[in-house]
Amino acid sequence: MSRKPKPSFQPAPAEKVRPVFALVCTALLAAISFVLFSFEFPLFAAVPHLMMDFSDVPALLGSLLLGPTTGVIVELLKNFLEFLTKGFSKQLGFGNIMNFAVGVGYLLPYTLVFRVGRKRHPGNQPRWQRVAAASAAGLLGILLLGLGMNYIFTPLYFRFVLETEITPDMIRASVGYATLLNGIKGGVLTAVAVPMLRLCRQLRKLMVRPGRRG
Length: 214
Description:
Layout: H1 19-37, E1 41-42, E2 51-52, H2 56-66, H3 68-86, H4 88-91, H5 94-120, H6 127-160, H7 168-207
Antiparallel strand pairs: 1-2
Helix pairs in contact: 1-2, 1-3, 2-3, 2-5, 2-7, 3-5, 5-6, 6-7
């Protein structure tokens, strides 16, 4: 006797989500993300300006629960609040731009690939295959976007924030450390994505309007 497959997590359709729940959830996730952002710390002594944090986790949860737009909004609000708190003079906004870019670079590919896999193979494709494909897309996105952004902004950061002349070797070293940091961030997000998908199944019961009986 064949076993009935477990229903996979499916993000709730936008028209069925309780509007108040979605608004409160987005604001709450942005606040949590902002708090986590304040606990950033350096990983590499050679480049102390490159900081590790876990503020992208709530944004990924919002993206999985309510859709990629919510994740982007959480990332935007978090960096806007952090920018207002620390002011323009500290990093001239470079850190916020990079944090927003690498966060979105992971959560957008992850969520979109996961959703596309669910729509193309409803009930047929094993869930672990969708998670693996989404994880690979997220890691690729954060690494490639981070690499391109770092090559653009690293010379500007050294010149206008650190007020230091930078050589091509210094650029390559700094970008290499930044890419390693983004890889670690992507690995952390990949590790927490699976339990977050399970959490989303439970939260979805609260966020969807009960159907009307005819």
